[in-house]
Amino acid sequence: MAISKVERLMNLVIALLSTRSFITADRIRETVYGYSGAASDEAFSRMFERDKNELRDLGIPLETGRASSSDPAEGYRINREAYALPAVELTPDEAAAVAVATQLWQSPELITATQGALLKLRAAGIEVEAPDGDVAITSTAALPGLRGSEEVLGILLSAIDSGRAVTFSYRPARSEPYVTRTLEPWGVVTDRGRWYVVGHDRDRDDVRTFRLSRIGADVMPTGPTGVVRKPDGVDLRAIVARVVGEWPAAGKATVWVADGRATALRRQGTVLGPRTVGGRSGEEISVDIGMFDRLAREVAGYGADALVLEPESLREDVIARLEAHLAPVEARKGADRL
Predict the structure, then answer these.
(1) In this structure, are residues 258 and 303 in contact, taking their beta carbons and an 8 Å threshold?
(2) Which InterPro entries has this protein been placed in (predicted)?
(3) DSSP string, 212-262
(4) How far apart are CA 305 and CA 321, in angstroms?
(5) How far apart, in Å, do the first and last CA atoms of the chain sit?
(6) pLDDT digits (tens, 9 = 90+) for 303-335
(7) Three-class secondary structure of residue 75 per DSSP
(8) What are all long-range contacts of 59-67, with beta carbons under 8 Å and residues at least 24 apart?
């Protein structure tokens, strides 16, 4: 059965985004659903040319190049970094305009989207005056990179809005014990898919950055309201970038993959050599980090068939995702035993 042009284009975009090598037109015809039904080579060629032009007209960065050193045929791929949307930067006036627009979003169908929009603005350190006072934050589960830290984020943002300090237990690394910290929070920002709170650490009497996933569930506001505010001229994103800038944009990750598994991930990297992990044979591969959150999500999706060896921050992120995924399963097992 024939499929629509929109579905065919979507299949093509997914295929071209899923590989770092170039895919030939013949390979696309064989593997991308929507092209195999072309009656002849000429019909496929016309269809494919129209689709390529359509993608370029839409602003999708379609690249061409040789599929391999041994194959002179022209291939195609989408530049992932150019395809990803840049961070949205709003001036205070623009942020205020968004806040005013939320007055129109008061129906039950739209209120969750309204709350999410204001949450993201505040997390970026942008002052937003919500109409008729504050807009309650009832759900943060849909925001990427927050799994397991939703309640922590909600409490921190509430404290920032009210100008209060917070206390919480924190561990700099998974292998270290928790210690209690008292912070005057200035804002929450994201970097490579991870969330950080920035502020003045009263215990260290200095500016500090804390990763939300390492903050304990005991976080709570303390002290009077209205006494904490972000100093003028402070760039929260610049502070986080200096603290967590662990690798250059073209950094590499070393990942172990089991034999015969994680084929798509294996295609993205360069084989470094064989290695046995936990009695299973496999290979070490070097993979471009690119977008941190995307790679962490992909590796975690392979479960026990893929393991990050370095950098440590990526390894910890993948482990945290797996633990968060297993937590509800373990809870259900515990309930079944009762």
Answers:
(1) no
(2) CBASS_pafABC_assoc_protein (IPR051534), WCX_dom (IPR057727), WYL_dom (IPR026881)
(3) GGGB-TT-EEES-TT---PPTT--HHHHHHHHH--S-TT-EEEEEEETT--
(4) 15
(5) 51
(6) 889 999 988 878 877 887 777 666 555 555 555
(7) strand
(8) 60/13, 62/16, 63/22, 64/22, 65/22, 66/22, 67/21, 67/22, 67/23, 67/24, 67/27
Give pairs for 297-304: CB < 8 Å, separation 24+: 297/321, 298/264, 298/265, 299/255, 299/265, 300/325, 302/257, 302/261, 302/262, 302/265, 304/258
Q: Over range 165-189, report the average pLDDT.
A: 87
Query: How many angstroms separate the CA atoms of 102 and 133, rounded?
Result: 12
Give me the pLDDT at residue 274, please: 93
Instruction: Report which DSSP code applies to 123.
Output: H
Q: All domains of the chain, ordered by start, with CATH? A: 5-83 (1.10.10), 85-137 (no CATH), 140-245 (2.30.30), 252-337 (no CATH)
Q: At what angle are helices 111-123 and 92-101 packed, to 10 degrees?
A: 160
Three-class SS of residue 105? coil
Structure tokens at 26: 């013949």
Backbone phi, psi, residue 292, to 5° = -55, -50
Q: What is the CA radius of gyration of the chain?
A: 24
Q: 180 — phi, psi (to 5°)?
A: -85, 130
Digit-coded pLDDT (tens) for 266-309: 888 899 999 999 899 999 999 988 766 678 888 888 888 999 99
| 287 and 265 Cβ atoms separated by less than 8 Å | yes
The H-assigned helical ranges of the chain are 5-17, 25-31, 41-57, 80-83, 92-101, 111-123, 150-162, 236-244, 263-268, 292-301, 312-337
